[in-house]
Hints:
By secondary structure, this protein is an alpha/beta fold. The chain is 36% helix and 13% strand. The protein has a domain at 28-184: Alpha-Beta Barrel (TIM Barrel). The strands form 2 sheets. An 8-stranded parallel beta sheet has the order 8-7-6-5-2-1-10-9. A two-stranded antiparallel ribbon has the order 3-4. Helix 9 links the parallel strand 7 (185-189) and strand 8 (209-211). Helix 1 runs parallel beside helix 10 and helix 9 packs parallel to helix 10 (222-235). The longest helix is centred in the middle third of the chain and has 17 residues, at 128-144.
Amino acid sequence: MLVGAVLIILQAPRCKDLPNTNWWNDGPLYQIGNIQAFTDTHNLKGLEQKVNSLAQLKVKGLVVGPIHVAPPDEAVNLSFEEISPEAGNLDQFKGFVQAAHKKGVFVVLDLTPNYLGSSGPWFSNSSVTIVAERLKSALVFWLDEGVDGIQLSGVERVATVVPSLWNDIRAIVQNRTDKHPSSRVLIGVTDRSSAEDVSTLLSSTGVDLLISRVLHSRDTDVTELARSIQHLYSSQSQMNLAWNLGGRLEGHMASLVGPALVKLHQLLLLTLPGTPIFSYGDEIGLMDEGTKFPKMLWDSNEELNGTLQVRLD
Length: 313
């Protein structure tokens, strides 16, 4: 796999001449999928206290959550605009956003509806329309609170089932207004691993970035993987390409590729044309240790459990 990763880097296409970039094209994004595991205080106040440390990683944006109230598989009790008590409260969220903005770091909020359930990110097909309609008003609420973008899993489902509502969702997030003159990002997440499928979804959904599993397949020949990267690069704008290894449901990079190869795969993500996306703890080689949300290690005296002390910079 070491040789394979090097081969991908060597075969990666030369960068095209870039058009004007948006902020999410100018550096890595850093995903914090579980605030309780990430902070010492287990809430948004603790996240605010970590902004200085995160800014030192030179990340361009933080992708936070989901943190809204969403009882598993219960669409009727979904509350997009209410923060789960375990994560904190709205005042804490505002303080975090303000602290991030002062450091020049953007904030993206994951609003995937059924993030704790097993019936899919948008519940059942019969509930997609109702959930998408409720999401529209929630988008306005959170954008008014200062978030710089939205992330949603299963975008292909809502875009297919209710295309008109999906167009409304896109317009709310992506359109600039006098109140929000700066660009805001719409990030989609899919479990597709085929470069052809990912390219089609990028075109059909119109998201600004699409997080996929193109780099995740362990069975794919490395030369074929290089071809997949080439296909995406040739068929889509570099501005829309996102590269990741791991994620909220997949786990951390070190557990997927092995501790010895973390630095190389970090280099891979930072070298490919597009936006690299890391999960919390990837910068130190954090291992999953039986859970997708291991405790983040902030103190060098803490038990490392095999975690590497490596940094993105």
